[in-house]
Amino acid sequence: MAQQTTSGSNTALLTAPGADNGAASTTTARRALYLKLFSGELFKGFQRNTIARDLVTRRTLKNGKSLQFIYTGRTKSEYHTPGNSILGNSDGAPPVAEKTITVDDLLISSAFVYELDETLAHYDLRGEISRKIGYALAENYDRKIFRSIVKAARKASPITKSGFVEPGGTQIRVGSNAQLSDAYNSASLIAAFYDAAAALDEKGVSQDGRVGVLNPRQYYELIQAVGSNGLVNRDTQGSALQSGNGIIEIAGIKIFKSMNIPFFGKFGTIYGTTAGTTDANVADPGNSGSFVGDAMADEHNITQNDYGQAAKFSKSCGLIFQKEAAGVVEAIGPQVQVTSGDVSVIYQGDVILGRMAMGADYLNPAAAVELYAGAASNDSAFG
Predict the structure, then answer these.
(1) Domain limits of the chain?
(2) pTM
(3) Who's near 73: CB < 8 A, 6+ residues apart?
(4) Domain 26-72+93-372: assigned CATH number
């Protein structure tokens, strides 16, 4: 049977499941819905693995490289003297300071999908890769924000006007021993949370939006102790305790768990028998991957914002903060780009690229508390 030729006028009759409303005049148009599908998978992966995005002050930047945040100090009230004009407080309050957050370099994660591999796979290869790209972006995103909150806890107030004293950040020691194991002690953690709540109250920080973020091991130590420490009513909370999504509260502070907070100079926990690689009080569960204790990179002035040197986080083991502690600026939210056309033909596959452009830094140091353990004093410097 002779092959039937198809004229250009009949190409519109071909089925194009990836085209938007049948607009299949070009290769790009034929893949329009596929691109949106990948975007959706990436964004779902990003949303599932970031917790910091909604816990701090977030702004979207358009047509610029940086965004200014205004920090206003406290003011006071005073009696009015009859006959005197009212031209503002006599001390010139409230003082105002400006904080600028600049967008960092483009953050990317990519993968090449060979067309034959995709054909032979019995699962949605591109969707799975897109989700993992979303995870990678979320991981980096949260780490930058949490490092910025540590920075806030070590900073003085941005208000420097003479005659005004504004509170800065707070550092609280967990336990009283020179051992890292204090960071996993539920009683010591609870005491630190109440101490942090009192400090935030004394500094006039709003109770709205107060949260704590702990390492998963610390979080589950609290879960195991709920029956004995009066922290939570197990019968009321039930299985919801296991989620790690801000279910537990101590002194009005919702507690989250994350592998992306600075934890004794790394992210997560490092197991092993080599000296210096095992955190005290945490036994190796076996079959643990290298990702469990991801090393911290030095990010001191390597991009637009300063995220600190890895060595400066050696005693850090938890964060408590209110959303004004740090800000994040997004110029490009989590997006996906996919090659097509001639590029796909030449390489017989496509590159799936996830990207975003953001920057983070501290805003109000008074709203940030860093927990530390293993020594009587913590690092005060950051860079």
Answers:
(1) 26-72+93-372
(2) 0.81
(3) 93, 94, 95, 96, 97, 157, 159, 161, 164, 166
(4) 3.90.1690
